[in-house]
Design a protein that fits this description.
Layout lengths: L2 E5 L4 H13 L2 E8 L6 H12 L4 E6 L37 H16 L3 E3 L15 H16 L6 E3 L7 H12 L3 H5 L17 H13 L10
Parallel strand pairs: 1-2, 1-4, 2-3, 4-5
Helix pairs in contact: 1-5, 5-7
Length: 228
């Protein structure tokens, strides 16, 4: 029996990865991190997605305030608003939280080991770069090697799956539609992206703008738009 573990945030991308894992593996387990992020709505989305996809297990891991940052996702600093894709920052986006994915993947390997799993999914993507250095393929390769070496002395002991790594947002939308089939609208409606915590998204923050552009370029109405 094949088994996998997904880092599920409740976002569009992590949900798409979870759906892919469900298609390709017999058992799918998920972990979600509560790191005192600005809004808990994404945690609610993760729980809803896990239930809808009937995962074998879903653990909510509380990290408290261990992740410190000036990022508005974990501080009182204001979120940056943009009027268009062209206005998005070309350098590092202020929402970046240092070492977040390093910590997430480290804990994921701990849970994977308990569950007897060697395949881990994470919804990172280079096309959304924005200075998020921990979303690049080179970072994932380095972490895979370090974690495998640290656990088993084998660089390939774990496989960190990043099925969205080189996809545009539009391509990710089409992939989700292909995998979820008739459940696409139902499942995508459960997801959350907005940094401001608004159900349906606000269309003004970095993640919202990219998600909106992806659905529009894909020629598909985003199920969450009905809540705006």
């Amino acid at each position: 029996m094949t088994k996998s573990l997904v880092i599920l945030s409740g976002s569009q991308d992590s949900t798409t990865c979870t759906a892919i894992a469900c298609r390709d593996f017999d058992e799918v387990h998920a972990i979600t991190f509560d790191y005192q992020q600005r809004h808990s709505i994404e945690l609610d989305s993760a729980v809803a997605v896990a239930k809808a996809l009937t995962l074998n297990s879903h653990e909510m891991i509380s990290l408290g305030s261990v992740l410190k940052s000036k990022s508005p996702l974990v501080s009182d600093n204001p979120l940056g608003q943009y009027d268009s894709v062209e206005a998005l920052p070309k350098e590092i986006e202020p929402t970046f939280i240092p070492a977040r994915n390093i910590l997430f993947l480290t804990i994921a390997v701990n849970r994977a080991e308990i569950l007897g799993i060697r395949d881990i999914f994470i919804g990172v993507c280079e096309t959304n770069f924005a200075g998020y250095w921990d979303c690049r393929r080179s970072f994932i390769d380095a972490m895979q090697s370090a974690l495998g070496g640290g656990m088993y002395g084998e660089k390939e002991a774990y496989k960190i799956h990043t099925p969205l790594m080189y996809l545009t947002k539009a391509e990710s939308v089409h992939l989700a539609q292909e995998v979820l089939k008739e459940r696409f609208t139902e499942i995508m409606e459960l997801t959350h992206t907005c940094y401001a915590g608004l159900k349906g998204g606000c269309g003004k923050y970095y993640a919202c703008i990219l998600r909106d552009r992806g659905f529009r370029e894909a020629g598909i109405d985003d199920p969450i738009w009905q809540y705006r």
